[in-house]
Amino acid sequence: MSKTIKICIAFLILLMVGMVIIDAKTRKPIDWSPTYSTKDKIPFGLYVFNQEINTFFKGQKIEKINVTPYEFLLDKFDSDSLVNTYKIKGTFLNINSYSDLDNQSVQELIYFASHGNTVFISAKDMPTSLLDSLKLELTSEFKYKDSIYNWVANKKLGNKKYKITEGIGNNYFSKIDTLNTTVLGYQSGDSTRVNFIRVKYYYGEFLLHTQPAAFTNFHLLKANHHEYAEKVLSYIPKGNIYWETKGQNGEVISESPMRYIMSQPALKWAWWLFLIGMLIFMIFNAKRKQRIVPIKDPLPNTTIDFIKTIGNLYYMEGDHDNLIDKKIIYFLERIRNEYLIDTSNLNEDFIQRLQHKTGKDINDIRNAISLINRHRKNPYHSVEADLIQMNTALEKIMAH
To answer: Which residues pair with 115 in a beta bridge?
Structure first.
């Protein structure tokens, strides 16, 4: 072993030891990020809530949902004319710093509540479409407060006020529909504001709360603040709980290919040592030469030419019916694979689902489905104009 290599190895060992010593003596700062993740033990994670959820909802079945409400509830609805309701009953639970429900999910939750179910949302802000549907308005305190007292309206649960000093929200309900809304809780800064309400909606209800920090690790472990969380959750009726945790299961949201390595201290140090070692290796071996690598042309891709040849063959043969059949089969196969929609019944329900998934014009979709159904009823004696019409109609839907 040469003297140069020995010096490099000794340098790497000293560098590694120095990094370990520095890392061991460095005090890690507290992470105050409001992740609301069920796996995070930082102040604004939901690790404690996740561990104690069976205590909050004793004897109740709890199911975690890692998709949007729209995706979860869509196939839970029985559209049979004799049933016409959801196959499940219970409460949909959503706790997050800011509610990120999309409009389709909001409409699905409204429909879910109207069939006799409950929707509980605790967030500093809520979707405008939901507030408009329930005739509500959220307003923020003009002057920011560093602490807010919270309490519930039901005197049977006690009149104790709980002081939230970290992660508080300044929003409150400034306008409510008094015919259908019941005030369940308040918060006070400069004045008393409504922060917890129940809104009746047909046969069900919405429970809306604007201080989600009450359910985080920091407040559940602070003094007696868990009592406030218990009081708020006590308004949820007995039954199944469907807890949406999409994006709150500790998923790494960074788009970098190195996101996991850089998030783990040990792997991060190993990565930097590897880069430094490779740099040293390249410096000491810069004079070495590599023989020329011969260039080999890649094999040509003849798939597209083959498809064009087969298509021209069918077209020249005048077999328009066969070409239309294959286009329909390809179209329906793409619908099943890309949008996960059942294509066994090309009815109005199928048209509506396809429109929601693709965002295409409803009239273009109806025209294409009408052409498919007409061809299936009379699959013979198609002419060139029929093939062109069918191809144009399908391309309008499948074009990105």
So the answer is: none
Closest CA to 273 of 36, 3, 18: 18
DSSP state letter for 244: E
Q: How many CA atoms lie within 13 A of 10 on its CB side?
A: 7
pLDDT tens-digit readout, 71-88? 999 889 988 877 789 999
pTM reported for the whole predicted model: 0.59
Closest CA to 265 of 60, 19, 57: 19
The alpha carbon of residue 281 and the mean position of all alpha carbons in its chain are separated, in whole angstroms, by: 45
Q: Give the tens place of pLDDT for each residue, 118-156.
A: 999 999 999 999 999 999 999 987 666 678 899 999 999
Other CB atoms within 10 A of residue 237 CB: 14
Integer Cα distance of 391 and 325 in angstroms: 11
252 pLDDT above the threshold of 60: no
Of 206, 245, 212, whose CA–CA distance to 228 is shortest? 212
Ordered structural domains, the chain, with CATH? 3-29+256-280 (no CATH), 47-244 (3.40.50), 303-398 (no CATH)
The 10 Å CB-count burial string (b at 16+, else e) for 356-366 is eebeeeeebbe
Beta strands in 191-322 (DSSP E): 192-201, 204-209, 241-244
pLDDT in tens, 6-30: 777 777 777 777 777 766 666 678 8
Amino acid letter for position 156: K
How far is it, in rounded angstroms, from Cα 273 to Cα 275?
5
DSSP 197-234: EEEEETTEEEEEES-GGGGSHHHHSSTTTHHHHHHHHT
